[in-house]
Structure formats: C-alpha cells, structure tokens
C-alpha cells in the first residue's frame, strides 16, 4: 500500500467515525447556542442580515463548503476572506528541523506572499500566523486558507458535507490539519497542490544565492560559457546575445532573492544531473576546440577569420587547458554528491592528460607560414609547458585526478592510464610528477573496477 493510500484510508476512517458520531462532533466544537439547529437544512448563502456581507455558508476556492454560522460577524468575515482568498499565494512550504513536538512531529511552515508565514504542528497547539491578526489565538484569513488547502487533498468523500471550522483554525470537524500533514506528509500535500516544497536549506546569503543561480543558469549561456566564466565581467569577445543573457540573469536573481520559491523551482528544473551533463558536454567540446585551435594555428598561422584570439600558440593552449582542469576540479568539488560527476570528471581529465602526453614535440618543427619559431621548449612544446617543467607546485591534471574517488578514475581508463605511464616514462618527466602519477596508479590498482561495480549506486542530490 502506498503512503498516499494509507493516508486516505486512515483519514477516511477518521471521517466515517466523524459522520457516524455527528452529535459527538458537535459537542467537541465550541459553538454558540443558536447553532443548536445546525442539523436543519442550511440557510441560503445570502446573509441573514441584509447589511452584513457575512454568510453562514462559505464555498472555498477548493470548492469545499463550510458552515460558519457559529461564528460572530468578524470571524465569519475572516473565514470568508481566507476560504475565498484568491489573492493569497503560497511561495513555498517547508518542514522545520527544530521545534519537534514531544512525539517527534516537526512544525510545518507555509511561506505566503507579503512575507507572511503560517506555522502548523510541532509544539504548536494551534496554527500561528505572522500577519498580526492572529495575536489572540483566533485564526486569521491565512490560517483558514492554508487549512482549507490541506483538507482539500484528502479524498473527496471525506469532505462532501458542509464542514465546521474551529475558531483557532486547528480543527476542521474533528480532523486537525496538523494530523493530515503528519499522516500524509508535507511533501505529498505540496505535490498535490503544486506548491513549491523546500527540502534543502536555502543559501545563507544573497551573494551565495546569486552565485548558485548564475551557475545553474550558465547551462543556457549562448556562448557555451562555463559557470566560472559566466560569473566574470564581460570581455570584448562577449557577444550581444551573451550580454543580453547576463542582463536577464541579473533580473532573475533580483526576483529570486525576493522570492526564494523561484530559486527552489530553478533547482527542480535544472536538476543536478542535467546541470552536470551540460557542463561536461561543454568541457568535452572545449577540449576538442582547444587542441584543434593549436593545430589550426600551427597549420595556418594567425587568422582573422575565426572569432577566437589571433594567436593560439603553445602558451595560449597551455593556459586554456590549465583553466579547463581548474573548471573541472571546481565543478567536482561543488557537486561531489551528484551521481556520475566523478566518472565524467575522470574521463575529461584523463583525455586532457593523454592528449598532452602525445605532444612532447616542437609544435612548430614543420610550419610553412614563415614565423620565427620560439626555440625555448616551454614555448614550443605543449608537454614541456605543462608537465616537463612541473617540478614543484600543483602537478598538471594529477592534483584534480587525485581528489576523485579512485575507483572512478580506474573504471574504463585503466588502459589509457598505462599508455600515459609509458609516454611519461619515455619523456624525461620530472621525478616529482612521475612519483605522483605512480602513486595515483597504485591507488587505482588497489581497487580494480570489478570490485566496485556491485557497490551501492550513489544518489543524486535533489
Ligand atoms: Zn495571517
């Protein structure tokens, strides 16, 4: 039986008891004496008083019928405003990680437009609202609105008859919205009502939220910018489309800071798996473009026809590859708990290393376009520029590779890693770099891929 079926069943039973014991329910709810004829046919929707716009029957936005004849004029008006509250908008809802009741049930929070928050359950005996109208414990329109929304998510036969509300909003007939929240679960109720449900903490500062939203939105950046590049100020190479895109992103961030439900929805749409697939598609594309850029420069010399920089020589290529390795490492560090990010990062890093170790040659040895080629190997040999001169400092690619789980490094790449080892050994590789590579290879070998395949699959962060 699903949780929902269970919830419906238990609530259904509760309400059958309710209807069977209508008299008991009537005794349980505090009502005025003039309510004693409540089992009579209901009065018309028209108010009993021609002046007061406060009918005793209210039909809510969820099409539930409420008998508010026991309420005084003020409370009738409040109930009507809440139950018919088309102007009330849920931003998002969340479960508190503090303030548990003695039986372990946490408080649920409902963040409504105009910076109003309704809290239900947990230690609270009755719902609370921050709007100010709820100070004396009598429900305000927001509390009635939330209660109506919650009760509308239980099965139809529970809510056929006109319902009675308690003045504090804690009971509808003899059902507590707080109990529905506990039985059915806030996440499922939010799903039924298409409310945004917050299941993770929001960023602590506006700056953090801004960074996060910019990273997410970079999946749409029209020049295929990586998250870190998208964040930096525009360069002369920034296209008009990218500039417009950055303006749009800024606008979106302003609204997301005001209404975190936008932030939460962006997180649901651009889920971590999608974000990571787009990121590594861009990375793979960049790796190809970077090596092709160098090859094209070597073959044809500086070009004015392509949009990139004029000189795509060995130092420029080395700089771009170093930046790509850093971008991969940064992305992995921010997404360590996302499924497959380590696998994708390992594949991209090993591709870069493999292709650099193929290039222990003077790149300009056979050029035909009349440049005086630099004689310094650091300037004409990609391998020397990135690995051959790496005596101290961070070993190119290896520092990023080392931080990945080693089974993800060895999986599918064992043959390539051995090829790289052979090429490094034949290339006069500086001892510190060679040592780091050997120990990495040793770590990978300790856990062959066959041992890790049967392990628990990692869960994507939601
Ligand atoms: Zn309120």
From TrEMBL:
Keywords: Metal-binding, Zinc, Zinc-finger
Residue ranges of every copy of the SWIM-type domain listed in the record: 116-151
Low complexity bias (residue ranges): 19-31, 41-56
An annotated Gene Ontology molecular function: zinc ion binding
Protein name: SWIM-type domain-containing protein
Region described as Disordered: spans on this chain: 19-56
Record has Ribonucleoprotein as a keyword: no
Upper taxonomic lineage: Eukaryota, Fungi, Dikarya, Ascomycota, Pezizomycotina
Family matches, as PROSITE patterns: ZF_SWIM
């Amino acid at each position: 039986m699903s949780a929902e079926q269970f919830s419906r069943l238990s609530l259904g039973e509760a309400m059958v008891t309710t209807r069977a014991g209508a008299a008991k329910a009537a005794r349980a709810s505090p009502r005025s004496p003039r309510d004693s004829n409540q089992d009579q046919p209901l009065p018309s929707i028209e108010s009993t008083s021609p002046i007061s716009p406060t009918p005793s029957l209210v039909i809510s936005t969820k099409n539930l019928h409420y008998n508010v004849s026991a309420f005084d004029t003020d409370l009738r008006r409040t109930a009507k405003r809440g139950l018919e509250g088309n102007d009330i908008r849920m931003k998002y809802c969340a479960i508190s990680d503090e303030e548990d009741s003695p039986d372990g049930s946490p408080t649920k929070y409902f963040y409504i437009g105009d910076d109003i928050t309704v809290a239900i359950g947990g230690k609270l005996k009755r719902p609370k609202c921050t709007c100010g109208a709820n100070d004396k414990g009598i429900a305000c329109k927001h509390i009635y609105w939330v209660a109506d929304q919650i009760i509308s998510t239980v099965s139809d036969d529970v809510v056929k008859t006109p319902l009675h509300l308690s003045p504090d909003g804690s009971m509808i007939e003899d059902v507590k919205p707080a109990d529905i929240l506990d039985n059915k679960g806030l996440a499922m109720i939010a799903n039924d009502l298409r409310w945004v449900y917050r299941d993770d903490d929001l960023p602590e500062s506006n700056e953090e939220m801004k960074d996060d939203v910019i990273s997410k939105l970079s999946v749409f950046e029209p020049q295929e910018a990586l998250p870190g590049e998208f964040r930096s100020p525009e360069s002369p190479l920034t296209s008009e489309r990218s500039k417009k895109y950055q303006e749009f992103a800024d606008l979106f961030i302003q609204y997301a800071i005001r209404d975190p439900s936008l932030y939460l929805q962006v997180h649901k749409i651009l889920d971590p798996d999608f974000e990571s697939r787009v990121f590594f598609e861009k990375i793979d594309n960049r790796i190809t473009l970077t090596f092709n850029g160098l090859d094209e420069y070597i073959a044809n010399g500086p070009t004015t026809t392509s949009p990139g920089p004029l000189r795509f020589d060995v130092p420029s290529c080395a700089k771009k590859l170093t930046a790509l390795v850093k971008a991969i490492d940064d992305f992995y560090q921010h997404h360590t708990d996302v499924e497959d990010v380590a696998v994708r990062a390992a594949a991209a890093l090993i591709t870069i290393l493999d292709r650099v170790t193929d290039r222990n040659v003077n790149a300009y040895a056979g050029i035909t376009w009349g440049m005086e080629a630099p004689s310094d190997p650091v300037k004409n040999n990609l391998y020397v520029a990135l690995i051959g001169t790496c005596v101290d400092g961070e070993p190119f690619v290896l520092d990023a590779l080392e931080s990945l789980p080693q089974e993800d490094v060895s999986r599918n790449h064992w043959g390539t890693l051995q090829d790289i080892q052979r090429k490094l050994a034949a290339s006069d590789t500086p001892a510190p770099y060679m040592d780091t590579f050997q120990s990495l290879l040793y770590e990978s070998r300790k856990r062959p891929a066959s041992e890790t395949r049967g392990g628990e699959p990692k869960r994507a962060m939601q």
